[in-house]
Amino acid sequence: MGGSRLPGKRAGAGGLLPALPLLLFLLLAVAWPLSHLAAAAVTGAGRSALAEVLSAGRYRTSLVNSLVLSAAAAAAAVALSILPAWVLARERFAGRRLLRAAIALPLTFSGVLVGFLMVVMLGRVGAVPVLLQRLTGRELLAGSAYTSAGLFCAYLYFEVPRAVMTLEAAFRRFPGELDAAARTLGASARERLLRIGLPLLAPALRSTFALTFSASMGSFGVALILARRFTVAPLEVYNQLIGFLDDATAGALCLLLALATLAADRLLGGGTRPGAAGRGEALSSLRARPSRLARRAGIAVAAAAAALLCAPIAITVAGAFSSSPWYGQRSEGAPVAGTAPLFRYVLGLWGPNLLRSAELALAVVPLALLLGAPAAYAFRRRPFPGSRLLEAAAVAPLAIPGIALAVALIETAGGAPRIALLAAGHLVYTVPLVVKTVGNALESHDPRLEGAARSLGAGRLAVLARLVVPLLAPALVLSALLVFAVSWGEFNASFLLATPLVQTFPAALYLTYTTNSFPVAAAATLIFLLPVAPAVAAIQALGGEELRRGPQA
Amino acid sequence: MRVELREVSFAYGGTEVLEGVSLALPAGAITVVIGPSGSGKSTLIALVAGLLAPAAGSILFDRRDVSGLVPERRDVGVVFQSYALFPHLTAGQNVAFGLTTGRRRLPPREAAHRVAELAEPLGLGHLLARRPAELSGGEQQRVALARALAPRPALLLLDEPLAALDASLRRQVRADLASLLGRLGTTVLYVTHDQEEAMLLADHLVVLDRGQVVEAGAPLDLYRRPAHPFTASFLGEANLLALAMPPGGWLLIRPEDLSADPCGAPAEVLAARGLGAFDRVELRLPGGAELRAHLPPGTAPAPGSILRIAARRTHFLPRGCDPGRR
Lengths: 553, 326
Description:
heterodimer, A: mainly alpha, 22 helices, 73% helix, B: alpha+beta, 4-stranded antiparallel sheet, 25% helix, 34% strand, globular
């Protein structure tokens, strides 16, 4: 009798049904293309391409550059993020929410936007060199955006928000009582940090490093804008594919990139929850009390980080309204001296792409919820043999560079309609967010509630409609917002998956950054930001820490 | 070490948790603070340990004001309600923690000796290599106690150390704890909401309610001769009969002090139930007042019958002593 079963831990096959669509999707859109990529790289032409990539030369240099730069940037990002994350997690002060939102906003930016912001700051006539010239009379740092240092700064720009969000969540879960216990046992602040804080937070620091390292390894959009005197692996993939039509070399590079990020994720990831001892919630008011000076310094550092992250956005957005000569000619294409004509011109140029992105997001949001939410429910409430594996497989694609996935999809399913490939690419990176968000929400609710409802006479459907869905409503709204934000900003996979005729708005941003004048680029950027900023604010209000898995840079 | 709190107040998030609390812990004795949840007991422990700073008032250790002293310099040991064991260290490393840090640091050999010395009477010898997650609740509790005791603190603070254990285990651990703390000779501050625990452990008992001390004294004195109705009803079952004639007040009759007596007052039996150790009987006096009596097992009359009862001991609580704040 099925009705007598308690919704809980028992493994049965009943949970497979809600997870079946996800399983089919993963097989079709992830497993098949990636295994094809791997198989192609070790047979025939792929084999010699792999050997060539691994031998000394341009390709190996690009891989080594990617590895070194990503590791250095990830280490720096983790180090820089510790204090702001600690302050956001443990301190209450006026403006905390605003600060948090300001740090989180860049999480929704694609790499091309980040690259453009770097040009705004450190390009040949970037804000920083211009300011330095006014102050010192000498030309300093001009064009440094295009060097390896510029790429490093760009990596930091999208890594620091990811690291702050991840670490903040870990710090928030850190049991304050352990620090209190160590104090009463006589340990000084330094010893508490070395013997309690660091050992317990080490897993979180490691997994933050893995997350940011993977983000940089796969970062394609940034390099597309910035890497002029310097090459990194994702850029070489693009060059081989588009420039030389060399699928084998591109495939080999993609495989190595995906292996590096997956290895980082497996070896270092998965430890953002420090184990809490005991089960007491007592003394919740009991927190480590930093000195007033340390508190102020921490808040100042967090505010400085937020200001640095927001400065290029503010400068760019101002460019859509200002007629300052620094921003360059405002009369591109049409008599667009005023602001309204400028926006009309930009909408005329990129309107179709804007519509394409909106359409895509409108399709991807419900599809991602339908694929992810029932599966997450099955994983938590009706586990079946292999459900843990499937859950891990659903989340794993987050560590795969978008460009590698795009190449794999084109190699295997290139004949499918491009809009379907685009949607698949977006779903691969958004379904994991739904699985995680809904899964976390389910974990926070007592599974016995469903048993209680059943015992009160509610049937399966009634339990679903009157208990499960209402309880999950905030998580579903949050998931929808996350999916929208990622889909709206996705560039790396979309750029290769779309034909020129169906390019999404972030791809239009890339074209406008490389071909149009600054005011046009600024207006387009502002149009991109308009739906994103409120979405980020709403996500923050709902406590969405998965935003750190925003679109790849 | 003698500990004294003078007019200590503490507020958290705009609400007063403790209001002008004054109490003294006699040196070398076990002081139990008892109160319902939310009365400010845990906050009291955190203040004495130095984990929180009082908003007003002072805390004295042997007449020395320690109000501004950080916890690592107070020479206290704390057993937290959740135990707060370090999850990444073994039980042995947890116990040794206070001996390998700060001012109470010992040479490694002495520290190891001290750990072994504590582990033996607490039955931890075979558990020292395990991590907290691999220990049962009772074992975790003993590790937490050993860790707090290891540096020989001048003051031991225990925050509901038995609350996380299930009922059958609690009875056993309570008895062990009573004998251990009794032998220790350290000044102990123990907070609990459990009346039996308080009566069993306390040399000196303090009743706390809504952030204020209701009264303090020897446990049996407070049980038999409380000054406040709150103390009377919180420390066990109480019949409190309101007296109408001036100056007004209450008559306290404990249920076990009532017994059948042919010369006693006639009372109607409303309900009766054998509980094993005694029979619990609900009675109504002719005036309408209701009483609860504990009678020897098997002697309870049937409901509806009349039982003549008398009280062996009564205690009068004058109205003036009722804390007007309520």
